[in-house]
Amino acid sequence: MTDAGSERDVRATTDAGPERDARATTDTGSVSDARATTDVRHARQLHLMRAASALGITVHDRMPELGVDLVIYRHGAKSVPVLEGRYDHELRARDFFLTEDKHATKLLLSEAGFTTPRGFAFAFTDTPASEGDDDLPRLTAFATEAVAALSANPAADAPALAPALAPVVVKPRAGMRGDAVRMDLVTAAAVAEHIADRRHLFRSWIVEEQVDGKDLRLQLVDGELVAACVREPASVTGDGCTRLAELVETHRTAVAAANPDNRLVVDTETQDLLAAQGLGLDDVPAAGRAVRLKRTANLAKGGVGVDVTESLHADFAPWAASVADLFGTRILAIDALCAKPHGPPTTGTTILEVNTAPEWVHHTFSRNRTHDIATRVLRSWFDL
């Protein structure tokens, strides 16, 4: 078992590292990695194409002939090829694969003095399971050790009580879009079961402490903090007369209209959450009652972004820039949990991950304030 807080050698967790295979699928069987899709125009690319036209930048769309979302932007003597609106000519393999590996990213951040969740990494030796496979006993032992290590201490004033187990988060080491992420697990059996059931999707996994706080996304361009939003999990509010199924459909339509990549699906996670709240899709929530539909604040699964750029504490700008200095890319985003976005980042801010090919479209329709990130990105590429 490898602890991100103490282990310095990423190779100690797995010889092969995290998945690089774009064929990984979600629990429902759909392709989880956009790099594997064809004939799909991504929202990021559409925003870039529109902004380029406004800036007088030539747009050469290669999608009709190649079948992939590739656009070449030209201005003067410079050309910038961009795949899916996020993979550009300056994105180095080192930075992309480092940040795609969540465990390696945490090691780098921890060594640089930033706070990250305590966690442990596990990798299967074979995928899928082979005959005589000894990975499942090893997984059980790993889950037991990880949950015990991350558990809360027993209450000081009640030594006779059994220790309360702190909830943990289980996630793929190199997952995207929140695929296969599960929160609020408190037993080793639940952790092992979640991982074992999805070993055909991801070979390498992380179990880490569940940190409370607001889900903060910081967007940087050329080391400058240009936008910040708090991400909220998909939810609806009852009005006392509308069925929950209709409220969910209204929310699904609204978020998809703003960003086609934001897809709310009523799946097992949603059904379990509704059951825990004593509700079904045919029920009518009381007026003002908030009904949670997803555990995580994922903006690809029905979540919403609330802009906090203007209220964000001023110290976040240099703090975020120092994170960006660890990576050699112009476009970067930081995902963090913090107690108070209006407070300094040095008190209660935990970095979850860093994205060197980030999704930024949500800043163009976030509540409170919107941002033209596409124009900022193009100006950066062409030094305008």
Automatic annotation (TrEMBL):
Gene Ontology MF, one: ligase activity, forming carbon-nitrogen bonds
Biased composition (Basic and acidic residues): 1-24
One GO cellular component term: cytoplasm
Superkingdom of this protein's organism: Bacteria
Chain spans, region Disordered: 1-37
Protein name: ATP-grasp domain-containing protein
